[in-house]
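re the bet — no i am not wrong, look at it urself. input seq straight from the record:
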Amino acid sequence: MRRRSLLIAVPTGLVTLAGCGDDESGSSEASDSASPSASASASGPVPAPKIVDGPLPAITAGAKFGEKPTVAKGSGDPSKDLAVKTIIPGTGTTAAENDYIQANYLGQIWDTAKVFDNSYDRKTPLLIQLAAGSIIDGWRYALTGKKTGSRVQLATPPTWGYGKEGYAEGGIKGTDTLVFVIDLLETFNAKSSAKGTNVAQDNVDVPKVGTNTDGKAPSIEVPKSDAPKKLVANYVIEGDGEKVTAENTVLVQYKGVLWDSGKEFDSTYGRKALTSFSLQQVVKGWSQGLTGKKVGSRVLVVVPPDLGYGDSPPADSGIKKDSTLVFSVDILAKM
């Protein structure tokens, strides 16, 4: 199986859709090599670090943004504070705390220069939230305020890494300072929307979805006709990103309404918070409907009961048994 990043927290608080699909369709990513949550790396909250500009070991090869770097062994004792340096300044969007980011990175141990993880070889950027409990604190404090297009180097003492316990599965001891080089590719927040070309919505038998891209919830107009018996998954806005596969984790904005009443039952817009999840952790209508669609797109997904919740809808969701569900889904990123 594909090795996961050591930085990622295993998903826990997923949207209503997650955890209510078939029991046999658990996340393969979550069962890959161990991936500790950031909160598991320390016994409790830690104070914000003092950020200093060094010392940091030299980058000896792969110096350009997007290239896999080679980093020298640390010289002398590392700082007990969080050392952060912007190697290449970006000019894009500024990352804020609680934003989701997409980044390539390499991580190694200060004393030995042993590389314990890197995304360049996997050819899959990390997609994660800059939030307490989602990622190690060294990243959260170092990347907040940085612009996309930046290459950032940091040295993270145990306090803002994996704590005194370390992370044995990754070969990290509780005394290790960790050195990272991070290429910040994208940042996403609650105002992020699809980007692409509007697609004609000329089938009067399926709902029509608004095409606004201002970060506000799009309208969903459900026709006064019988719900389709089969899955509908149509582009509303077609992006130009890579296609989603059934094994991907996706970052989305979405809104869900009931076919029978048009009543909204769930929305990331209402919560003002994006969500990410593996397509192996959701109901079949979502996994089948989004597979093959391009990143950057808005997709209309109409989920019949047999591909949704059937006769077992989530408690207190407002969804009745055998309901047909209608979603507008903006696919912002994938991993």
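see?? The first helix runs from residue 137 to 143. told u. also Residues 1-37, 39-43 have pLDDT under 50 and may be disordered. so pay up
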